[in-house]
Specification:
2 copies of one chain form a homodimer. Chain A is of the alpha+beta class. Chain A folds into 2 domains: 151 residues, 60s Ribosomal Protein L30, Chain: A (2-Layer Sandwich), CATH 3.30.1330.100; 76 residues, CofE-like domain (CofE-like fold), CATH 3.90.1660.10. Chain A contains 6 helices and 12 strands. In chain A, the strands form 4 sheets. Chain A has a 5-stranded mixed beta sheet. In chain A, strand 8 and strand 9 form a beta hairpin. The longest helix of chain A has 16 residues. Chain A is globular, with a radius of gyration of 19 Å. The interface between A and B is large, with 83 and 83 residues. Strand 1 of chain A pairs antiparallel with strand 1 of chain B.
Chain lengths: 254, 254
């Protein structure tokens, strides 16, 4: 009785070489697998950041007085705190006992450590910052892949963020192109003909999460191919993930 | 260059008849598709609630004084507010201007309206409450499916919740059996041999989100089959989703 036409396939793509700043990441991604119209490529933030040169050695960071103060309070490396604050517009929460620093990044994301990460980075003391403009990164990758292979897939750039209320990190979309981050069903009707009350679906985040299920955290599988969601892929690049940031005045949890 | 062995397949299963209280839901689910060891079945909360008789007509609800007061403040139906409060242990946030009522349910979930929903419910004024014990529901479904077809799949019961900071609803797991809701990678090492800092992955939630991508919100596709994640399916039912509720004293956003 199943509807075989609607199957979604999620396939981690291996074989991407270590990415260096300035590499042609779009061509490298396009070479991983044959792409078809309607495909979506989920790319991990880290590989995009590396390509964009968003790697900083803590040895080169001089903490300012504010970072030094916060670092003492949280018992954290003042150089890392300096970077976190410089990537942020706001400190949202701190927890001195656990050394937690949750900020609002200049993109508008609310996450621990402004999304700065030190795992899977070659070189001691090197850390990776989020791309400056992840939606722009997604648009550039989409265009570059289109030039390389003739197909412009939907592109989602993702990272794993912690959440309020629930343990564990979930992969979320921080940039996208060619898919709408939100699928708005308001105004449509349910199976009883009643209007759906408030259903806006976080499509890009769910794609990021689905992609992550296939990924081995210890290996280099920075790209995951999602097939079967062609109805979500748009001709235009669309608004990007910036569109799914909850405006501060509507957010009850800042 | 892709690793074809790791493909995940997500397939919405159609053909489930309208579910009534007391129906043999496990057998009905087992009949939707042939199941194999390592399969995961994601089942929408609403169909489980219906089977468990968690449907209430607002016409039968008499609001108490507290509900009456909150209902006036929020300009909401006092009967629905009575139900929301009776399903909750705590009011977490209200927003009078937008009629928002976010509570902590007796399960420990933090969500709008205690997860009570009125879409896709037959009968005017009928609303559906969350299952009393969604992990127990998942375990019963798993056992029943095992009896019906000889295979005990991983079972995830899911609902769509709003989130802090990000617009849109994402499908999350509210109950599970046969999969661990959290995949703990702490202590393992990254590709450079360094210990992974703090990576606990919200596996059950990501499965719920992946399943939702294949679901048409206006039709009855309450079950989604996920194949290719057999390494996440356990012999034991495991701790259930209760295990992924962030303890209140560790939660910075209540």
């Amino acid at each position: 009785m199943s509807d075989g036409t609607a199957e979604i396939r999620v396939r981690p793509l291996t074989g991407l070489p270590e990415v260096l700043p300035g590499d042609d990441l779009a061509s490298a991604l396009a070479a991983l697998a044959p792409l078809a119209e309607g495909d979506i490529l989920a790319v991990s933030q880290k590989v995009v950041s590396k390509q964009e040169g968003r790697i900083v050695s803590l040895d080169e960071v001089v903490p300012g007085p504010r970072a030094a103060k916060v670092a003492v309070e949280l018992d954290r490396d003042p150089r890392l705190v300096e970077l976190i604050l410089s990537e942020s517009v706001n400190v949202v929460r701190t927890d001195a006992a656990r050394g937690i620093l949750i900020t609002e990044t200049h993109h508008g994301f609310i996450c621990a450590n402004a999304g700065i990460d030190s795992s899977n980075v070659p070189g001691s003391n090197a850390v990776v910052l989020l791309p400056r403009d992840p939606d722009g990164s997604a648009r550039r990758l989409r265009a570059g892949i289109g030039e390389a292979c003739g197909v412009r897939p939907g592109v989602v750039i993702s990272d794993s963020f912690g959440r309020a209320w629930r343990l564990g990190q979930a992969e979320v979309a921080i940039g996208c192109a060619g898919i709408n981050p939100l699928d708005d069903w308001r105004g449509r009707t349910d199976s009883e003909g009643r209007e759906l009350a408030a259903t806006v679906i976080a499509t890009a985040d769910q794609i990021a999460g689905a992609a992550d299920l296939g990924r081995d955290k210890t290996s280099r599988t920075p790209a995951v191919l999602i097939q079967g969601l062609g109805h979500l892929v748009t001709q235009n690049d669309g608004p990007g993930c910036r569109d799914q940031i909850r405006p501060a005045h509507e957010d009850l949890f800042r």
